[in-house]
Design brief:
Layout lengths: L4 E4 L7 H7 L2 E2 L3 E3 L14 E3 L3 E2 L7 E2 L9 E4 L2 E2 L6 E10 L4 E10 L2 E11 L6 E10 L4 E10 L14 E4 L5 E6 L6 E10 L4 E7 L2 E10 L5 E11 L12 H37 L3 E3 L2 H17 L11 E4 L11 H13 L1 H13 L1 H10 L23 E4 L6 E3 L2 H4 L2 H17 L2 H22 L1 E3 L2 E3 L17 H17 L5 H6 L2 H14 L43 H4 L13 H4 L6 H13 L8 H11 L3 H16 L12 H15 L3 E3 L2 E4 L9 E8 L2 E8 L2 E8 L4 E4 L2 E4 L1
Parallel strand pairs: 27-31
Antiparallel strand pairs: 1-9, 2-3, 3-4, 5-6, 7-8, 7-13, 9-10, 10-11, 11-12, 12-19, 13-18, 14-15, 15-16, 16-19, 17-18, 20-28, 22-23, 24-25, 26-27, 28-29, 29-30, 31-32
Helix pairs in contact: 3-17, 3-18, 4-5, 4-8, 4-18, 5-8, 5-9, 8-9, 8-10, 9-10, 9-12, 10-12, 16-17, 16-18, 17-18
Bound molecules: 5-hydroxymethyl-3,4-dihydroxypiperidine.
5-hydroxymethyl-3,4-dihydroxypiperidine binds next to loops.
Length: 742
C-alpha cells in the first residue's frame, strides 16, 4: 500500500463531500476543495484564502467562500460528461500527497464511443496564488467534436450566505478572464483571473452567466489522438501579506493578480507541477515520518503531515489555523485552542518558524483579548474562544442549538465562559520557548502574553470556601455547561500563574514601563498560592469539577465506540446530560500529558481508566489525546487502539464525518500522540528527552525533532531506539532515561 496515495476506485456520490475535504489541495495561503470539475448535487465547491473573512449584519465573521475556478463542463458530440448518468469504466481517483496533485482517470462510454479522460490538478506550493488544471481527452473509437466550458463562477455562497458584492467581469484581448469583487462588510478586494487553452487548434468564445464568466472552447479530435486542455487561475486579495504594510487599492490587486497568472502561463501545467512537486519532495525529505508494520496508521500519519502543510500560512502572522484547516467552511474558518494544544507541537518540533508565526498571530490578538476581558469585567488577556481576523475579536456565535419544536435557541456560552484558552496559549508559548530557545520571540511577544494571561486569572477567580475558585466555566468537555472548578481549567490557570512568576525577572524594560509589573506580580503570586486545585478523592479520582462524583452513573456502552457521534441525545436532552457522569471528550486526562509532573503514575492510570469509561469520544479531539495519555500510562495496546480510531477520524470508513472539512486538531493530535505519546518526546530541565515504546502491531516508527536548531531523527523498532543528527550542532539528549551526545 502506498502511504502517500489517498484513493477512490469506484465513484460513489455519497463520498463527494468527504473526498472534497480529505483530498483538498492547498499551500497555507489558499486551499481548494477537491470538487469534481463537472457539477454534482451535494458538492461543496469551496476555494478559501486564509484571512478573507466577512461578517454579515448580526452574524459573526466567517471565512468567505471565493469564486470557483475548479469548474469545467465537457460535452462530446452534444452529450454532457456526467459520472452519474453515463457509463464509466476504468475509474480511479487519487490524491498523490507526495506531490500535492489530484489525478482522476476514467473511460467514459459516450454516445460518440469511448472517451479516455484524465484530470490533473494542483494548487502550487511555489506560486501560492496559482491553481492549475490539465485535462487530457482521447476519443478511443471515432473522431469527435469536443466542447469545454470553463471559467470563474461567483455564484458561490457559504451554505447560502453571500459574502461578496456583484462582480465586475472582463475578458481581455489575450483571452484572460477576470472577475473582481469585494466582501460586503469587511471590504476585502478579491481578483480572480483565469486562462483556458488547448494544445490542438480550437475556437474560443466567451459567455457570461449571472456572477460568472466563461471561456467556451470547441475543437475536433481524431480517434486515438489526445487533446490537452489547460486552465490556470490566479487569486489575489487586498488582505494578502504582500500588502500588509500598505493601503492597497483594488486596481493594484487586479494588476498583481493578472501578473501572477501571466507568470504561470509562461510555465504551463507541467512546469508548474514539476516545481511544486519538487518543493513537496523537499518537505517530505526534510523530516521523515513513518509508522512501519501498519499500513493504515502509516497512511494516516502521511495524511496528517500532508494537511499540516496545506493548512498553515508560512509567511503571514495575521492568520491562524481553522478547526477544519482550510479544507472547508465548517466552524466558519475559526481558530480554537485546537491550534495551541493539538497542532502547534508539530510545528514547534518540525517547523519552528511556522510555530512562531502562529504564536505571533495570538500576540496580535492581545488587544482583542484585553478588550474582551474588560467587557466581562476582568483584567488582563481573556483570549477569544474563537478567533478569525485580528480585528474581529471574539467570533464565537452567541446562538447555540435550536429547539425545532419550540423555536427556542439555546444561548452559546462558550465565548463567555470557555476561558481555558488563555492558559492554553500561555502554555504553548512556553513550550515553544523550551524547544527553540527563541529569546527574541519572548522579548517581543511571549513574556507579555504570559504576563497578561496570568493577570487575567488573578481577576477571574472568586473568593469562596477560604480559597480562590474559578466558577462558572466550560472545560474541554463541552457536554458540561457552567461548572465550578473544572480541574483542567484550574490546573492550567495555576500553571499560567506560576509561569508568570518564573519569567518575572526576564520581563523586558519596555513592558515594565507599559505595565505596573510589581502590582501584577503580587496579585499573580497571591492567586497562585490560594487557587484551589481539585485533588484526588478517597478513590484516587480527581473530580472533573465540583460535584462530579455525585452525578448519576450511566451505561455509556450504548453511545460510545459507534459510527455516529451524539447518540446520547437520542435518550437525553442537554440539561439531563448535565446530571450524568458522561463527557464528550478528553478533559481531566489531558492534564496528565500537559502537566504530567504534577501527578503520580498511579493517579494518572487510575484517572485515565475512570474517565475513559465515561467519555463518549463524541469530539474528534478525544481519541488522539487518549492515545497520547494511554501511551504515557504504559497502556500501549489500548493506546494503539485509540490511535487507530484517531487515525480513522478523517480517512476511516465513516463517509460523512469530514463533509465540512478535515479535523485539524485530530490531525495535529495524530502527530502528537506518535511523537509525545509513543515516542515519549518532551523537554526536561532544558534537555530533550525521548523514551519510545513500541505498541503491538507496529514493527517500528520514526519521526524528526527540531530542538534548538538541531534536527534529529528518532527511529524505533523491536531492537530498540536510536537517534541520528540530521543537521545542526551536537546536542546532549536523554534516550530512554540515559544521557547521550548526538
Ligand atoms: O475546540 C473544539 C472543541 O474542543 C470541541 N468542539 C469543536 C471545537 C473545534 O474543533
Amino acid at each position: 500500500m502506498n502511504a502517500f496515495i489517498l484513493s477512490e476506485n469506484r465513484f460513489d456520490p455519497k463520498n463527494i463531500r468527504k473526498n472534497e475535504s480529505i483530498m483538498c489541495r492547498g499551500n497555507g495561503y489558499m486551499c481548494v476543495r477537491a470538487s469534481l470539475e463537472e457539477k454534482y448535487i451535494g458538492e461543496q465547491r469551496n476555494t478559501l484564502i486564509n484571512g478573507v473573512f466577512n461578517a454579515p449584519p448580526g452574524e459573526v465573521s466567517e471565512i468567505a467562500v471565493l469564486p470557483d475556478a475548479t469548474n469545467c463542463e465537457i460535452e462530446i458530440g452534444g452529450e454532457r460528461f456526467d459520472m452519474i448518468r453515463t457509463d464509466i469504466q476504468e475509474y480511479s481517483r487519487i490524491l498523490d500527497m507526495k506531490a500535492g496533485e489530484g489525478v482522476r482517470s476514467l473511460v467514459w462510454k459516450s454516445n460518440s464511443g469511448r472517451i479516455r479522460l484524465e484530470f490533473k490538478s494542483i494548487v502550487s506550493l511555489t506560486k501560492k496564488h496559482i491553481t492549475a488544471l490539465k485535462i487530457s481527452i482521447t476519443p478511443l473509437d471515432q473522431d469527435t467534436e469536443i466542447k469545454i466550458r470553463a471559467g470563474i463562477d461567483a455564484k458561490v455562497t457559504n451554505t447560502g450566505v453571500q459574502h461578496f458584492s456583484a462582480p465586475v467581469r472582463r475578458v481581455y484581448e489575450d483571452g484572460i478572464l477576470g472577475l473582481y469583487l469585494k466582501t460586503l462588510q469587511s471590504g476585502v478586494d478579491v481578483s480572480v483571473h483565469c486562462r483556458c487553452s488547448c494544445d490542438k487548434p480550437y475556437k474560443e468564445e466567451y459567455t457570461t452567466d449571472r456572477r460568472s464568466v466563461y471561456s467556451c472552447i470547441s475543437l475536433s479530435v481524431k480517434q486515438g489522438e489526445t487533446a490537452i486542455f489547460q486552465k490556470l487561475t490566479s487569486y489575489a486579495t487586498s488582505r494578502d501579506v504582500e500588502y500588509a504594510e500598505t493601503d492597497v487599492c483594488p486596481e493594484t490587486v487586479n494588476r498583481d493578480g493578472t501578473e501572477y497568472l501571466k507568470q504561470a502561463l509562461l510555465c504551463g501545467y507541467d512546469a508548474l507541477y514539476a516545481e511544486s512537486a519538487e518543493m513537496w519532495k523537499k518537505y517530505w525529505e526534510q523530516s521523515p515520518l513513518e509508522i512501519c508494520g501498519s499500513d493504515f496508521e502509516n497512511k494516516a500519519i502521511s495524511f496528517a503531515k500532508y494537511h499540516l502543510n496545506v493548512m498553515a500560512s508560512k509567511d503571514d502572522n495575521r492568520v491562524g489555523i481553522g478547526a477544519k484547516g482550510l479544507s472547508g467552511e465548517g466552524y466558519k474558518g475559526h481558530s480554537f485552542w485546537d491550534t495551541e494544544i493539538f497542532i502547534l507541537p508539530y510545528y514547534i518540533y518540525t517547523e519552528p518558524e511556522t510555530a512562531r508565526r502562529l504564536l505571533e498571530y495570538r500576540y496580535k490578538l492581545l488587544d482583542s483579548a484585553l478588550l474582551k476581558a474588560k467587557r466581562y469585567g476582568f483584567e488582563g488577556a481573556m483570549y477569544p474562544w474563537e478567533g478569525a481576523w485580528l480585528t474581529d475579536g471574539e467570533t464565537c456565535p452567541e446562538e447555540g442549538d435550536l429547539d425545532l419544536m419550540t423555536g427556542e435557541v439555546r444561548k452559546n456560552m462558550m465565548g463567555e465562559i470557555e476561558v481555558h484558552i488563555s492558559a492554553d496559549i500561555a502554555y504553548a508559548v512556553w513550550q515553544y520557548f523550551q524547544a527553540t530557545g527563541d529569546e527574541d520571540f519572548m522579548q517581543h511577544c511571549g513574556y507579555e502574553m504570559i504576563l497578561l494571561t496570568a493577570y487575567f486569572w488573578s481577576s477571574r477567580i472568586a473568593e469562596k470556601n477560604g480559597r480562590y475558585e474559578i466558577l462558572g466555566v466550560i472545560g474541554p468537555d463541552e457536554y458540561k455547561d457552567n461548572i465550578d472548578n473544572n480541574a483542567y481549567t484550574n490546573y492550567m490557570a495555576f500553571y499560567n500563574l506560576k509561569l508568570a512568576e518564573k519569567i518575572m525577572d526576564k520581563i523586558p524594560e519596555h513592558l515594565r514601563k507599559k505595565y505596573d509589573t510589581q502590582k501584577m506580580l503580587c496579585r499573580i503570586t497571591e492567586t497562585a498560592e490560594r487557587l484551589y486545585l481539585p485533588k484526588a478523592d478517597k478513590d484516587g479520582i480527581i473530580p472533573a469539577f465540583d460535584g462530579y462524583r455525585d452525578l448519576e452513573e450511566t451505561d455509556t456502552s450504548k453511545y460510545k465506540n459507534r459510527d455516529k457521534v451524539g447518540l446520547i441525545f437520542k435518550d437525553y436532552g442537554f440539561d439531563e446530560i448535565q446530571k450524568l457522569q458522561v463527557g464528550k471528550q478528553a478533559d481531566t486526562i489531558m492534564l496528565f500529558h500537559l502537566l504530567g509532573d504534577m501527578f503520580s503514575d498511579e493517579e494518572i492510570k487510575r484517572n485515565y481508566e475512570f474517565y475513559e469509561q465515561r467519555t463518549l469520544h463524541d469530539s474528534s479531539l478525544s481519541m488522539c489525546f487518549h492515545a497520547l495519555v494511554g501511551a504515557k500510562c504504559a497502556l500501549a495496546d489500548e493506546a494503539a487502539a485509540m490511535y487507530h480510531r484517531a487515525c480513522s477520524v478523517d480517512i476511516g470508513e465513516n463517509v460523512n464525518n469530514s463533509d465540512e472539512g478535515i479535523h485539524s486538531a485530530s490531525i495535529g493530535g495524530i502527530w502528537l500522540a506518535l511523537a509525545m505519546g509513543f515516542g515519549g518526546l518532551c523537554v526536561e530541565d532544558g534537555m530533550l528527552s525521548v523514551s519510545p515504546i513500541l505498541p503491538k502491531g507496529w514493527s517500528g516508527y520514526r519521526f524528526t525533532v527540531c530542538f534548538c536548531g538541531t534536527r534529529l531523527l528518532i527511529e524505533t523498532d523491536s531492537s530498540g531506539s536510536q537517534v541520528k543528527r540530521l543537521c545542526g550542532e551536537e546536542k546532549e539528549i536523554r534516550l530512554s532515561g540515559k544521557k547521550l551526545v548526538v
